[in-house]
């Protein structure tokens, strides 16, 4: 089938059964790293489900050992410019995020990357139908942004949830922490970049419920069967009622301005390019050891 100009889905699976639309991240060989193509396919599938009268609730899940290890930054490829200098490109297949502005007037200061992340996952927030995430294994960085913008998240007790890039790279693309947990927990997790288990995330209110890994699917489907029995219009009204409270408190404005600190922390602060330099010098393993080693040495994830 053809979806909004993207063609057949290449990195997700999409199905509908028993009033539940299921979007499955389907790149297990790379821990479902979120490429531009996968992101666009997810957004397209969400809109497909929203417009389908046979769908009441939408499930986002993943194949393989992990829900998602984050954004696939390695999909950027080097291309020579006019004088032969290699310039990093943000896509390698022509599949750019919607409304990406690639122009000299805006390059370098408007942070099209962070803006695109907010736009993509706010589709979930704005969708008329509820979206549920079922999370297992690693759910890190961009993966945690996807999960946290879902209306409900059910996770495996032994899942690992966190945002390690904040230790040496940038602020989050979508600063969801203050909106998903208490100030004490939000500051602790955002300042340290530490990860927590699914059970710990449920205890702090980050996610709705945590189940034993062997029960995650059966318990999630039990929840979804019950939710799908509610009239879609009533589900939508209740979703929008809760959303409205957070909108009044300023969540959307906070997210819309997040790109500015992301740009400052990732480009202009002293040491902003240290991670990239470590990556060039010693590869990914060396860069991650530089970033995460001091935390692992103290027993943190």
Tell me what you see in this structure:
This protein is an alpha/beta fold. The protein has one domain (12-73, 101-269): 2-enoyl-CoA Hydratase, Chain A, domain 1 (Alpha-Beta Complex), CATH 3.90.226. It contains 11 helices and 11 strands. It has helices at 36-50, 112-126, 142-149, 177-180, 183-192, 198-203, 216-227, 232-249, 251-256, 258-268, 274-297, and strands spanning 12-17, 20-25, 57-62, 78-80, 86-88, 131-135, 138-140, 152-156, 160-162, 195-197, 209-211. A 6-stranded mixed sheet has the order 1-2-3-6-8-11, with helices on both faces. It has a 3-stranded mixed sheet with strand order 7-9-10. Strands 4-5 form a two-stranded antiparallel sheet. β2, α1 (36-50) and β3 (57-62) form a beta-alpha-beta unit. α1 packs parallel to α2, α2 (112-126) runs parallel beside α3 and α2 (112-126) packs antiparallel against α10. The protein is globular. Residues 1-7 and 75-91 have low confidence and may be disordered.
Supply the helix-strand structural class.
alpha/beta
Please tell me how large the radius of gyration is: 19 Å
- Quaternary structure state of the chains depicted: single chain
Largest sheet: 6 strands, mixed
Task: Classify the helix fraction into a percent range.
Answer: 40-55%
Question: At the first level of CATH, what is the class?
Answer: Alpha Beta
Q: What is the terminal-to-terminal distance? A: 41 Å
CATH superfamily: 2-enoyl-CoA Hydratase, Chain A, domain 1
- How many domains make up the coordinates? 1
Any idea what the CATH architecture is?
Alpha-Beta Complex
The strand order across the widest sheet is: 1-2-3-6-8-11
The total beta strand count reads 11
> Within the CATH hierarchy, at the fold level, what is the topology?
2-enoyl-CoA Hydratase, Chain A, domain 1
Q: Give the low-pLDDT segments.
A: 1-7, 75-91
Average pLDDT reading: 91
Shape: globular
If helices are DSSP runs of H or I spanning 4 or more residues, what is the number of helices? Answer: 11
The H/E string reads EEHEEEHEEHEEHHEHEHHHHH
- Strand percentage lies at 15-25%
């Amino acid at each position: 089938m053809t979806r909004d100009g993207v063609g057949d889905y290449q990195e997700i699976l999409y199905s509908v059964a028993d009033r539940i639309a299921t979007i499955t991240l389907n790149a297990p060989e790379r821990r479902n790293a979120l490429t531009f193509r996968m992101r666009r396919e997810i957004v397209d599938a969400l809109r497909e489900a929203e417009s389908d009268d046979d769908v009441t609730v939408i499930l986002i899940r993943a194949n393989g050992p992990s829900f998602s290890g984050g954004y696939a930054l390695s999909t950027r490829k080097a291309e020579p410019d006019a004088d032969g200098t290699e310039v990093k490109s943000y896509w390698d297949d022509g599949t750019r995020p919607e409304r990406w502005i690639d122009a000299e007037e805006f390059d370098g200061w408007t942070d099209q990357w962070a803006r695109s992340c907010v736009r993509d996952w706010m589709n979930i927030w704005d969708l008329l139908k509820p979206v549920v995430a079922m999370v297992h294994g690693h759910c890190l960085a961009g993966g945690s942004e996807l999960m946290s913008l879902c209306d409900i998240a059910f996770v495996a007790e032994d899942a690992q949830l966190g945002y390690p890039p904040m230790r040496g790279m940038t602020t989050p693309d979508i600063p969801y922490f203050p909106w998903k947990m208490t100030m004490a927990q939000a500051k602790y997790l955002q300042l340290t970049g530490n990860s927590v288990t699914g059970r710990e995330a449920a205890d702090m209110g980050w996610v709705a419920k945590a189940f034993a890994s062997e029960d995650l699917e059966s318990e999630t489907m039990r929840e979804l069967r019950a939710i799908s029995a509610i009239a879609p219009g009533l589900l939508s009204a209740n979703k929008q009622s809760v959303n409205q409270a957070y909108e009044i408190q300023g969540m959307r404005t906070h997210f819309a301005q997040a790109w500015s600190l992301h740009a400052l922390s990732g480009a202009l602060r002293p040491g902003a390019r240290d991670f990239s330099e470590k990556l060039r010098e010693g590869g990914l393993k060396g860069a991650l050891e530089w970033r995460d080693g001091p935390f692992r040495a103290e027993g943190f994830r």
